[in-house]
Amino acid sequence: MRTPRRQTLIHLAVLGACATAQAQTADAPNAQPVAEGSNVLSPVIVSGSRISARGFTQPTPTTRIDAVDMEKAAKPNLFNALADLPALQGSTGRTTSTNSTSSGIQGLSSLSLRGLGPIRTLTLIDGQRVIGANVTGVTDVSQFPQLLVKQVDVVTGGASASYGSDAVGGVVNFITDKRFTGFKANVAAGQTNYNDDRNATLQAAWGGSFLDGRAHLTASVEYSREKGVPSPRFGGAGANGRSWFKNPAFQVRPIGQTTDGKPQYISIENAQQFQYAKYGLITNGPLQGTAFGKDGVPFQFQYGSNGVPTGTGAVTGCITPFCIGGDLAGTVGGGTTLGMNMSRQVAYTRGSFEITPDHEVFFTLNYGKVDSLFTPNPGAAKNANLTIQCSNPFLPASIVTACAANNITSFQYGVANAIFPKDIEVNPVRTQLRAVVGANGRFDLFGKDWTYDAYASHGQNTIDINVDNMTLNARYNAAIDAVRGPNNTIICRNAAAAASGCVPLNIIGDVPIDPAAWAYIAPANGPRQYSRQRQSVASFSVNGEPFSLWAGPVAVAFGAEGRREQYYVLGDPYGNGVFPSSPNTPQYPADPLLNTAIGNNWYAGNYHNAEGAYHVKEGFLELNLPLFKSASLGEANLNVAGRHTRYSTSGNVDSWKVGSTWKTGVDRLRLRAVTSKDVRAPNLSELFAAPLVVNNTVNYQGTTLTVQQRTIGNVNLRPEIARNTTLGIVLAQPSWAPGFSASVDYFDIKVNDVISSLNAQQEVDLCVAGNQEICAAMDLVSATKFVTLQAFNLASMRNKGFDLEGVYRFDLGGMGLPGKLTLRGLATHTKSFVTNSGVVGTIPSEAAGVNLGNTPKWKGQFSQSWDTDTLSLSLSQRWISDGVYSNEYIECQTNCPTSTVTRPTILNNQMKGAFYWDIGGSYKYSKNLTMYFKVDNVTDVDPVAAPQTGTGYGINPFLYDVLGRQYRVGARLSF
């Protein structure tokens, strides 16, 4: 039953009053101020703006995570601590996309604000762009140096005018300690209460000054290993005793049957795919329901739901493709890796030299390697799509006799292929090399002080994705089609296959697989993708206060930037296609069975070649204008910014920002507002997608046409255009509550011209509806008919909601107790998140509160911390509110309306949220040694079932903790 709105609000209010998140408002008074006498070479960092003038209060909300917060989180990877922040929704990590072979984002730790996706969140280091670790251009936080990060600023508002493309949802800026002196180290280890995902972290950093303090050098090295959760392979059990896995799924009735008043969708547990069994199942005809076990012995398959096979492929009492219960031995959903085996190796150094007291030059070098390994699914299930001839010599005699008795020569067959000796393993390895050189300083112009910052960077990310134990479809189909040959030997029926090395494969029952057959269908050189991305950036900016108005100095920042992005991707010949002009290599011999024109020969993991590049030139100007300053009215400023950008692919585009803050005359009460036009330029993958041509059919004006389906990139894509508005109230340490600060911000993000891809029929329908841009991508009249699949600027999104943030810190000395108590809280309420695909026949979808997705109605993080000089204890909570499977579903039990494609009916549309407790603490054993511990998910809350319409692993790792209770202990050294 859905939690009433009043109960939810009361729940949030109580938690917010007594606890808060591990974050604080960057511009709240409890943030550390910069001393008046500090060197201009250590400028004030304001991540939501390019203006670094003292006293400037930016209108864009920014959440700051400092080193103390990161230490208390005690995560093996800083990414995990940040992903828990309420405004970050839809971030990808090592527990997401583990059921995918070809997505390219596996093992990628990328941050996403507002559920808009990592491609609309700009992630920076020290305000600088970082080379992407994926063809979409998103960065991998795991490649960043982490021990030297002193704070992370999360700008929860559009920032394209300040930083350029991709800052639609906001900016995450990692700020390093450039003046660190001394030595520090961190050693930690942990595991889950299921005795898996054992992890270890080793980090060390050193910093020193030379030449009377004019030269400074810092360096850090890091290694961490999280061994992950191994696949339990087949059956209905979760990994290592995780009893919560119940094979959830949706049973979906055909729309035509929903005139009976019953719902179309029903969520079930113990879902049984009745189109295959662990070691084989006859799925159609008079022998339907015959399964095979040890040594190929046939037996009657136990269908769930008391189902009885009909001989037509259907099963009474079941809804294709699921029954409930029965023989679950062949279930594959639970065999997906819950957490990848991932290692990080990072080395970082920064050096600087003061040429004069006012001018400094610097360099940074960064090496980061992230190596992940996981199993997307066990075996390689074939869902009733195989044909076995009754003459197959591997069949038991009883089945051959039954074939003859029923006058059939073949039957349909489905199998999970549990006889395969090894499961599919996907191994993405990302290696980053990045170098930066730059200068900063100050100069005098017309009697005014100005500061400048300039840098040039070059980065390269090499991404190798290696997939092992993958089968070639054509070879598999040839190998299972066996016949008796000369001397009663068993050979492959296809003569061309036999001549090119085909070895017969027995998939009838639990029988040992022939190693030669396995080597034939799953060659050692499995799917491979090698890609290299390069980014070169040159940037220059100037800050100053050229003159003053009646209310104070006018601050200005301006600058220019140039950037070039380039990539190329190489797929293996079997996936990409061994083109005639390409010489065959020993590891990829010629094979008449394989498609040498378009590839796509693998069961999964068909990678294709692609390449492309573009360059960007842009300039920006930002002004901070004081409006008034008086004792009665307080003080206010106007912040405006504009950026003009020229892309080599899509031409010119402008972004801008207008904001204001008003420090009212009311005790420490401040109002802020900002609205901006933000952009996201199409990325390399969207512009230059790998070309692919296959045959397909479409319906055009009532006629079915066979067409060439040509998939390519679209160099005519335009930038996405967003309008981002934020209104907020900030109360910062009023006289009646010293130590207390809070803020409430309303946000409204509208994104138009969203880049999205369509299928062939959707493009044809849009053309018929009058979309001339899409009509230009097809020819349905000429002899050679084709439809070109490209990304188009068709969709739109709008996300609205509230951010709440607060902190209360007070000394316990007045109560006769040592130390200080800090209560913190952070929550995001997504009121609405509507997406309109722009596709004919669809309706806008509402994602807010859809717990199968990324944006729950409420996401909160709270903590309570007691700190003394030697001891620290903290208790924290993470909260996801109750939600639904889909806001488009109509919930009903009886008298349901007839379902439609856009508004299906469902028996129960409720999906529970989650509440997690974490506890941690540290003890300062000596001046140089601090020991600590952390327990996450103390009560071992199980992930909520996330049913799918097909085979899936039944959880949503974007919202829920899927690993269980986790223990970590460690020690920090400092000298």
Automatic annotation (TrEMBL):
InterPro entries: Beta-barrel_TonB, Beta-barrel_TonB_sf, Plug_dom, Plug_dom_sf, TonB-dep_rcpt-like. Residues 58-171 form the TonB-dependent receptor plug domain. Residues 440-938 form the TonB-dependent receptor-like beta-barrel domain. It is a multi-pass membrane protein. Its main location: membrane. It is found in: Cell outer membrane. Residues 1-23 form the signal peptide. It comes from the Bacteria. Keywords: Cell outer membrane, Membrane, Receptor, Signal, TonB box, Transmembrane, Transmembrane beta strand, Transport. Pfam families: Plug (PF07715), TonB_dep_Rec_b-barrel (PF00593). Belongs to the TonB-dependent receptor family. This is TonB-dependent receptor plug domain-containing protein. It comes from Pelomonas parva.
